[in-house]
Specification:
By secondary structure, this protein is of the alpha+beta class. It is built from four helices and ten strands. The longest helix is centred in the C-terminal third of the chain and has 17 residues. It is elongated, with a radius of gyration of 20 Å.
């Protein structure tokens, strides 16, 4: 998924509290349908089995969000982003069992869910009226719940392999994790552009006012 959406789809992972009361904002232009291709997910590893997950086609509806920011005093900003989303798509599971490889595919549904991310970022005004956001601290992955028949198909495959392949596997433990996908987050230090066409004049004025106050506070 694109970096902006990936940043939105996150569970709370950092416990640090903001150093000052945060400013809360929302940007309606980001509440949209995102069609992303080629999403890579963190592999599932259990004993002698490894499952590489990807989503070649998917569509995510970002229904609402809330951003809270507070200056750290060192040029960075404490951040909490809470989002509500749902979606659907296709997931591919490349399964390695005892040296044998097979591929499973299925349509998936992302039920309505709320996720939040807590981290630390640098925000700067871009030359085109947008904003450059550079993560300093973020969780490694985001947990996204999904519903599909993959767990049942993999369980059947695992039990067949355990019975005839000469390798004992905990098939229940292997399939238990296939209702949640771990989506990798952007790497710290990578800079992403929040485009100007996603922001209204009011949005930019609100962000500019916050950044000016943050510089004065620092």
């Amino acid at each position: 998924m694109a970096a902006g959406l990936a940043t939105a789809l996150v569970v709370a992972a950092l416990a640090a509290a903001p150093p000052s009361p945060p400013v809360e904002m929302t940007f309606p232009g980001f509440n949209d349908v995102y069609s992303q291709a080629g999403a890579l997910l963190e592999p599932v590893v259990q004993g002698g089995a490894r499952i590489h997950l990807s989503s070649p086609d998917n569509q995510v509806v970002l229904r609402s969000h809330r951003l809270r920011l507070a200056p750290q005093g060192d040029g960075t900003h404490w951040m909490e982003l809470v989002v509500d989303f749902s979606g659907r798509g296709r997931v591919v599971a490349d399964v390695e069992l005892g040296g044998q490889a097979t591929r499973l595919e299925d349509e998936v549904v992302l039920p309505p869910q709320t996720r939040s991310v807590v981290g630390r970022v640098v925000i700067a005004r871009g030359v085109d009226g947008g904003y450059e956001v550079t993560p300093v601290e973020l969780p490694d992955t985001v947990a996204v719940a999904f519903e599909s028949r993959l767990a049942g198909s993999l369980g059947d495959l695992c039990r067949t392999f355990s019975a005839f392949g000469g390798v004992r596997l905990d098939c229940d433990a292997l399939t238990a994790g296939l209702s949640t996908a771990a989506l990798p987050m952007p790497d710290p230090g990578d800079t992403y552009l929040v485009p100007a066409d996603r922001l209204t004049a009011e949005d930019r004025a609100r962000l500019d006012a916050y950044l000016a106050q943050a510089r004065q506070a620092g």
